[in-house]
């Protein structure tokens, strides 16, 4: 504990609390959509390119032919969100997956992803839990997004927009919170005007982690200095560095009963080793962007990013429960990842007329160079001489540091000594894309575009070399074209009716470049097609309604039911409806509600429907509302409902439906200080929100509260 506090003190010093103040929160309640690598801001109901870029005449949000959900900094504060998973709970058409207890894992319209994450439009595909301390907002774009984001993006993407230096201002923001589990957070947000045309902004955070589960602890440290400078009236640069240091216990939940339901009788038991279940991540990420306006109608930008990531995760987890014998089977492994990502992307944006027809052309390119080293060692128990051992469910489980007593009463020892795989992957991606937003008339717009990707991967299987002394190197090049077509009808200024078609792809190496061993190396990339029809209606100045009907045909890797260390390729078809109402009903009353209906089945080679797609609730409904009772006092409340779903491809284990109520109250002591309390699971509902496989079922948190102080001076 002492070394943790010392490290935190080095980062935070005396200012151990942070968050931007209420004043800045109101100002930055402007939303944004990252349109490819162009930073797009949403002010009111209009999409603008970054103010320095000023790339084109504003495009109304209601004219974008795609489903987009935006969570602003103000919503993050008021709802007490501290993770990507919290945000996803209140987003229609999107759910969480467990992520094996060591990473964000989002299910976009039935498509599970651990790699479709971006920071300011730059790919962020390493598996870890992402912090919210340095964000202006989070944007979730649904449907295949290959034209703007490249490979993946099959059901959607999630983009985090970070805070940038504010020229001409000096302020200190802070946030401090503690919850009833004992977790606490401190954040600081400092902005310095270094000259009339430049600013330095420093965001830092320290989190001590805790929750309702035995053994759970950990810490997160984040430090993100950024520098912004105007090099002239038409040029701006942004430079940033982020240091990430995460450590936490891995909890993969509880097993299922033979009846195919969560084993609720074990919801207080953690099926893991308090010493050998952990994950650590240290990362150093550098980003730089230069933006230049060549003229009022011709702009450009270039972004370069380099990230160095070193991650370890180690775990034991349940893989089966024998009710008659009252014993749970535990499997396990330790996995390391070392990854270096170098990404350069550039865009040219031009606006012009051909006769009476208006055009906004986006021409861009991207280069990615990734070096990825992975190895995995399976558990090995001396009694079974295998990677699986059997234990009697108890609290605590009878194993610690690899030494324990099995269900037969025998002493057993585990070591992670069995090499499962060891690979080195080199990935080179080159992309070109073009898109034209065409204004044919005042009531009809068309969007046409296509992207070419060349994906070159070489995988060196070190395990084979260790076993045989023979090099096992596989190379594959995939070249794909991903089209996008959109049609927008405008019966009146505040109503938009759109239709769109888009495609995306995922190479056979998967999201994390696992392998391209035979027979996978002979197969084409997984492909995804999306057809979407939608309505957007701004029926009041600050209140909007959106609706979308969509269909996705996909072929994607899924965790195998009988072996969680391998993937099966699953073809499926998913249809759905998404509805969202968001905005201010009055000056004092903010309201957001979302609903989705999802229906999807696996299909065989002949198109015959089979099992329902895993982690696909038929109905989801969420609502959140805040009301400013007085000038200083406000209340918030809402709920999230999730229908039942299956935890596995075989549809043998069901996650029951649940509804969880949350509430908040806040009081502005002054313009510089706010006190706030957030209550989660107000009625203490027992629920199991997600899973990774059939016997890795997450146990939802009971009634708990978080007390927060925020402000700015």
UniProtKB/TrEMBL annotation:
<keyword id="KW-0408">Iron</keyword>
<feature type="domain" description="TonB-dependent receptor-like beta-barrel">
    <location>
        <begin position="231"/>
        <end position="682"/>
    </location>
</feature>
<dbReference type="InterPro" id="IPR039426">
    <property type="entry name" value="TonB-dep_rcpt-like"/>
</dbReference>
<dbReference type="InterPro" id="IPR010105">
    <property type="entry name" value="TonB_sidphr_rcpt"/>
</dbReference>
<protein>
    <submittedName>
        <fullName>TonB-dependent receptor</fullName>
    </submittedName>
</protein>
<feature type="signal peptide">
    <location>
        <begin position="1"/>
        <end position="23"/>
    </location>
</feature>
<keyword id="KW-0732">Signal</keyword>
<keyword id="KW-0998">Cell outer membrane</keyword>
<feature type="domain" description="TonB-dependent receptor plug">
    <location>
        <begin position="61"/>
        <end position="157"/>
    </location>
</feature>
<keyword id="KW-0813">Transport</keyword>
<keyword id="KW-0675">Receptor</keyword>
<comment type="similarity">
    <text>Belongs to the TonB-dependent receptor family.</text>
</comment>
<dbReference type="InterPro" id="IPR000531">
    <property type="entry name" value="Beta-barrel_TonB"/>
</dbReference>
<keyword id="KW-0406">Ion transport</keyword>
<dbReference type="Pfam" id="PF07715">
    <property type="entry name" value="Plug"/>
</dbReference>
<dbReference type="InterPro" id="IPR012910">
    <property type="entry name" value="Plug_dom"/>
</dbReference>
<keyword id="KW-1134">Transmembrane beta strand</keyword>
<keyword id="KW-0798">TonB box</keyword>
<dbReference type="Pfam" id="PF00593">
    <property type="entry name" value="TonB_dep_Rec_b-barrel"/>
</dbReference>
<keyword id="KW-0410">Iron transport</keyword>
<keyword id="KW-0472">Membrane</keyword>
<keyword id="KW-0812">Transmembrane</keyword>
């Amino acid at each position: 504990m002492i070394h943790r506090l010392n490290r935190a003190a080095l980062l935070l010093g005396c200012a151990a609390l942070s968050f931007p103040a209420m004043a800045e929160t109101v100002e930055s309640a402007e939303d944004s959509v990252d349109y490819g690598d162009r930073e797009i801001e949403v002010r009111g109901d209009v999409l603008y390119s970054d103010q320095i870029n000023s790339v084109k005449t504003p495009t109304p949000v209601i004219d974008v032919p795609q489903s987009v959900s935006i969570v602003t900094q103000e919503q993050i504060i008021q709802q007490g969100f501290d993770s990507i998973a919290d945000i996803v709970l209140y987003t229609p058409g999107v759910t969480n997956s467990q992520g094996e207890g060591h990473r964000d894992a989002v299910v976009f319209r039935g498509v599970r992803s651990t790699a479709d994450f971006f920071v300011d439009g730059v790919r962020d595909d390493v598996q870890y839990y992402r912090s919210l301390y340095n964000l202006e907002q989070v944007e979730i774009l649904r449907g295949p997004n290959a034209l703007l984001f490249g490979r993946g993006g099959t059901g959607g993407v999630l983009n985090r927009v970070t805070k940038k230096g504010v020229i001409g201002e000096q302020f200190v923001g802070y946030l401090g919170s503690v919850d009833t589990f004992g977790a606490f957070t401190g954040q600081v947000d400092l902005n310095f005007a270094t000259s009339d045309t430049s600013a330095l902004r420093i965001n830092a955070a320290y989190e001590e982690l805790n929750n309702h589960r035995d053994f759970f602890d950990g810490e997160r440290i984040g430090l993100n200095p950024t520098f912004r400078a105007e090099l002239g009236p038409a040029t701006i640069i942004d430079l940033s560095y982020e240091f990430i240091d995460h450590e936490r216990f891995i909890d993969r939940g509880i097993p299922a009963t033979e009846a195919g339901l969560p084993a609720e009788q074990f919801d207080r038991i953690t099926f893991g080793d308090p010493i050998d279940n952990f994950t650590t991540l240290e990362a150093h990420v550098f980003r730089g962007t230069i933006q230049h306006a060549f003229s009022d109608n011709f702009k450009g930008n270039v972004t370069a990013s380099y990230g160095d990531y070193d991650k370890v995760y180690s775990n034991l987890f349940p893989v089966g429960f024998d009710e008659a014998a009252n014993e749970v089977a535990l499997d396990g492994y330790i996995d390391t990842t070392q990854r270096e990502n170098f990404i350069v992307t550039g865009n040219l944006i031009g606006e012009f007329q051909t006769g009476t027809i208006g055009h906004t052309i986006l021409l861009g390119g991207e280069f990615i160079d990734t070096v990825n080293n992975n190895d995995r060692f399976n558990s090995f128990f001396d009694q079974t001489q295998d990677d699986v051992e059997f234990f009697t469910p108890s609290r605590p489980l009878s194993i610690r540091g690899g030494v324990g007593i099995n269900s037969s009463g025998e002493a057993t020892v585990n070591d992670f000594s069995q090499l499962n795989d060891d690979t080195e992957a080199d990935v080179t991606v080159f992309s070109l894309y073009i898109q034209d937003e065409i204004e044919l008339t005042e009531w009809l717009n068309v969007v046409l575009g296509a992207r070419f990707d060349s994906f070159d991967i070489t995988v060196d299987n070190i395990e084979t070399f260790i076993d045989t002394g023979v090099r096992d190197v596989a190379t594959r090049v995939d070249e794909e074209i991903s089209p996008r077509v959109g049609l927008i009808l405008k019966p009146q200024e505040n109503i938009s009716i759109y239709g769109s078609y888009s495609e995306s792809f995922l190479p056979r190496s998967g999201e994390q470049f696992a392998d391209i061993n035979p027979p996978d190396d002979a197969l084409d990339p997984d492909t995804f097609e999306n057809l979407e029809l939608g309505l957007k209606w701004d029926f009041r100045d600050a209140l909007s309604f959106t609706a979308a009907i969509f269909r996705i045909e996909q072929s994607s890797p899924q965790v195998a039911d009988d072996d969680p260390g391998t993937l099966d390729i699953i073809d499926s078809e998913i249809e759905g409806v998404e509805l969202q109402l968001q905005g201010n009903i009055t000056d004092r009353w903010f309201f957001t509600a979302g609903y989705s209906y999802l229906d999807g089945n696996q299909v065989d080679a002949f198109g015959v429907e089979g099992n329902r797609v895993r982690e696909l609730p038929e109905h989801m409904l969420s609502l959140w509302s805040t009301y400013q009772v007085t000038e200083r006092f406000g209340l918030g409340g809402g709920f999230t409902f999730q229908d039942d779903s299956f935890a596995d491809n075989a549809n043998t284990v069901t996650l029951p439906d649940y509804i969880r109520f949350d509430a908040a109250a806040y009081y502005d002591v002054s313009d510089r200080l706010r006190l706030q309390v957030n209550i989660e699971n107000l009625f203490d509902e027992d629920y199991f929100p997600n899973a990774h496989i059939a016997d890795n079922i997450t146990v939802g948190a009971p009634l708990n509260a978080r007390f927060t102080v925020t402000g700015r001076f």
